[in-house]
Each structure stands twice: as C-alpha cells, then as structure tokens.
Description:
Blueprint: H1 15-63, H2 74-82, E1 98-101, E2 104-115, E3 148-159, E4 162-173, E5 181-186, E6 194-195, E7 201-208, E8 214-219, E9 222-223, E10 229-230, E11 237-243, E12 250-259, E13 269-275, E14 284-290, E15 296-301, E16 310-316, E17 325-328, H3 330-333, E18 338-341, E19 349-359, E20 366-368, E21 375-378, E22 390-395, E23 403-409, E24 422-430, E25 441-445, E26 451-456, E27 464-472, E28 481-486
Parallel strand pairs: 6-13
Antiparallel strand pairs: 1-2, 2-3, 3-4, 5-7, 7-11, 8-9, 8-12, 10-11, 12-13, 14-15, 15-18, 16-17, 16-19, 19-20, 19-21, 22-23, 23-26, 24-25, 24-27, 27-28
Amino acid sequence: xxxxxxxxxxxxxxxxxxxxxxxxxxxxxxxxxxxxxxxxxxxxxxxxxxxxxxxxxxxxxxxxxxxxxxxxxxxxxxxxxxxxxxxxxxxxxxxxxxxxxxxxxxxxxxxxxxxxxxxxxxxxxxxxxxxxxxxxxxxxxxxxxxxxxxxxxxxxxxxxxxxxxxxxxxxxxxxxxxxxxxxxxxxxxxxxxxxxxxxxxxxxxxxxxxxxxxxxxxxxxxxxxxxxxxxxxxxxxxxxxxxxxxxxxxxxxxxxxxxxxxxxxxxxxxxxxxxxxxxxxxxxxxxxxxxxxxxxxxxxxxxxxxxxxxxxxxxxxxxxxxxxxxxxxxxxxxxxxxxxxxxxxxxxxxxxxxxxxxxxxxxxxxxxxxxxxxxxxxxxxxxxxxxxxxxxxxxxxxxxxxxxxxxxxxxxxxxxxxxxxxxxxxxxxxxxxxxxxxxxxxxxxxxxxxxxxxxxxxxxxxxxxxxxxxxxxxxxxxxxxxxxxxx
Length: 487
C-alpha cells in the first residue's frame, strides 16, 4: 500500500514584507517627530525675535536720555546704555556687547551719526563730528549743522546654527539753546554715586548752565510730580528730595531738564545712582520635586532687587543650612531661576535652599544673601487636582495690542495628599493648534482666593492657545486644562 502525504498550504507574511512594513512605519513616525521639532523651533524663534525687537526699542529709547553733547560715538553711547537698568553688558573679558534675556544671548551693535537737515541748509562741520551719509552738503548757510543724531541698534542672536537679527533706528533732536543741566548729584556723595547708607531720602542737587525758570526731573524715564526748588539766588542751583526708603537696591537713572521763561530747554543731564544698602533678600516661591528622570527640579521667583548678579542652590539632609552641598553654583547659575540636581540621594526627604548674590559696596566682589526657607522634597507625592475650568477673553485697550485675560477657579479640595496644597498655577502659551511642552511654560501665577485672573499683555498682535495647570508644594503638576484661545 502506498502512503501519500497531503500538501498543506500555509498563509502569512514573509520576512521581506514585515521589514518593508516596519520601514514604512518608521518613516512615518520620524516624519511626525520632525514636524513637531520644526513647530517647536519656530515658536522659539518667534519668541526670540520678540525679545530682540523689544531690546532694540529699549536701546533706541535709552539713547534719548543721553545728553546730546555726549552722544557722539558708539563707545560713549554703549557706556551710557550699559549703565541703565536692564541693558547691562553680559559679556565677559571685553567681548562684544551682549544682553541675556529668557535664556537667549543677544549681541548688540550700535551706531550713532549726526544729521544736517537739508531744510535749513548745510553748515560748516565741526572737527571730529561724524555726520550721516545722507546729510546735506556742507557749506556755511547753517549756523548750527547738528540738527539731530541718528541712533541705530542691531540686535542679533543665533539659534541652531542660524544667526538672525533685527534693527531699530531712533532720532535724538538737538535740544536747542535754552538753559542746560550741568550736573545731577546726590548731596554728600561722590561719583560713581553708590549709596550704601540706609536713609529715607536723598537730596538731589541739580545745577544748570544758565538761570532757569523751571527744572523737572524723571526717574527711569518717568516724570516725577515733586518739582525741584531753587536753593540760592542764582536760579542755577536746584534741589529735590528723592524718597528711597521703599525702593529696591540697584541702579536708577535720573534725568533733569531746565527751561527758561519761554519754555525752551537746553541739553538735559542723566546720571545713574546705585542703591546698595542691604544684603540680597532670600528668594521666595521656591518649588521643586523629583521628576521621572531620577533628578530633582528646583525653581524660584527672581528677586526684585535690581543689583542681583546670580543665585546658588545647596542640598542638605535636614532643614538646616549648616552642612549643605552646592548643586548649582553661583558662577554657572548666574541669573537663571531653575536648577537641576542630577544625583539626589535616595532618601525619604531631602532639602534645598537658594540664595542670591549682589556686589559688595566698594569692592564689587560677589556677596551672598540670606538662604531661602528650606524646600522639602519627598520620595512619593501625588499631583494636585486641576482647575475645573479655564475661560479666556480678549480686549483691546486704547491703541495697544490685544490683552488676553484668563479666569479660572482654584480646585476644592486642592490635593489628594494630606497636608499638601497648591503652591502656584502654571500658564502655558502656544501657537494655535500646537501641543504644549516644557518650552512653552510662560508664567507662574501666585494668588490667593478661589476665583483667579491672569493677563497676557505681551501678545504681540498674535493669537495664542493657553493651558493652565496646578503645581503643589512638592512640585507635582496636575493635568493641563485647555486649550482656550485669545489674542
């Protein structure tokens, strides 16, 4: 008898088909990741461009406070700008003029030239004056050829190997032939005017080049309501009391203008006076906790003092600061208000402390302030509850850009962990339709009460989507509520 084996057909995918399918899937996933990365990069560049534009405008506006007679070169202009709050040079070792904002280093290039307006003819050029290329031809028809100065600021930055820039131009008019201001001096102090004594007020002495009818003064560009008064019979010495008791330490810009009986003024005078009376205050709103990467994130609110030059973070095994280990040192930390401890000990509880640095009077050496209250980081922690709802509205106040207002409620209860509560709310801002990430953390909001309101006054004329989350005292973050749109 012959035994015959039946032939059984087998159905399925061949190895080649599986490999092709896997390759197609991989290409699709990589393409989506590339799109997300491109979207994030575009958002970052837009924010950097906004920051560069804002910085360029501040520079051109700051140039207006420089006395006209001193606004003669890039060197003198940069020196005056770098003495103004927020425009300090962040470069080291005499490099290019740089300003760091929101983690981006901007390089600043300025230029200044004099314009002889064609409308009143060209005058004979004084020696050493740098006239703009588009000034009228020099001759002797104009007794005063220096009609105004043109200041140009170019702010550039580099992101992912690509350098971008924005340019702003400002005009500073020749102040004319009225009485000018010769000096602005805090009474009893010598240049460079660093005030180290705790006094309620400073007497500011203003001297004018000619007798003046009225003298006014401004602080950081804001005109002050308290008017200077004559202190002798010459009408060339004026004084005013500057109330400083409630002011933070740091540099302040004082500008004085003098006017004759017809309201004509001459060159103004600007001086920078630095208050340096106290040690830096201890940083507040310190928050942090373990993340899913085995490290600890710590962040805090920036000190309001204007003379802070950096921060330092230490870790201890107890609430005391006596036996701490520095995890983010002052030299590398600078003004960043976030710190990562990459190797925290495997303990049930560890503590972190933050302190700020300013410059010691006279020497300028880094001087530490008081340590913050301890931040306790525990091993286990549940996230808080999210706001139940977030609403957005848009208004257009005056001629300014849109203002977006978010309203939301504090959840009740706040946190599932006994004794834990919400420390702050985090605001995320993204382009319409984009998904928020760590880069899109826009603001931290600290307010008491059940009904909360937050405003975005820097919308830049664009629409955005907003999300809100709650963060508890141990840094655990709730789910994000959103999106809501505005702008």
